[in-house]
């Protein structure tokens, strides 16, 4: 197939004067090169498209692809991850990963928690804070954990995110709202083990790749898989495969959340346990990072024995089968 690549490079936005934290979700040239090489080793032709503005220009000019491998995060708005899929759908171009509805739903952590909660998937009690009065009148039991409602890559997750009383909740809320210009998700702090779960496939055919436990080392910011810990994960975080009963339950909950949210092709689900060892849904990463050695999903896959090439091929295969492209591919190959 001819596979286009859509992505947002950090370097493309650095000239806008954005701070490093704002650029955290965007990709490095190494990620795009690794993804392109994996696709070409699988026998596909590739075409680097770039961000949504480049994609729009190419589509209007009449360019088309058999499939677009989409890792574009978008620049602004809580529906930013839905923008490239929506544009591709408007022009009838098949693509990998979830559709616009699920992309927007997944990025808004409060909306995602509402959906999985209503589907019977365990998730910590939560509320959305927009003002200081929200933090004072929330009715939740402390300690709480606060983070921006529509960010990824640990942005806004830091030591001050864990609050022990209303005064700390007000201070953290005002700080996060000012910095990220969006509401804040507040949820009961879960003090147990933390897992990340990789899932591949669609519908009833979706399955857990593996469950990895995230352990923070002595060099890490304590208790929190924060933005800083993620950025410096090689020195601060230990990733270990987990297969005990609690980890298996984390995998079951992650798969249930994946299906409830309508995720497609692949995703990564974050899970954390309460004080009694009961896993709870934290959030979904519908566009999981694809750096071969720095991103959680490829790290997880590698620990199960799945190569980076196999992971990329599995995502493409899931998208091909889901969209009924398999016969077209066979005809083209023959």
From TrEMBL:
It comes from Ruegeria sediminis. Keywords: ATP-binding, Cell wall biogenesis/degradation, Ligase, Nucleotide-binding. Residues 113-317 form the ATP-grasp domain. The keyword Calcium does not apply. This is D-alanine--D-alanine ligase. Pfam families: Dala_Dala_lig_C. GO terms for molecular function: ligase activity. The keyword Flavoprotein does not apply. Belongs to the D-alanine--D-alanine ligase family. InterPro entries: ATP-grasp, ATP_grasp_subdomain_1, Dala_Dala_lig_C, PreATP-grasp_dom_sf. It comes from the Bacteria.
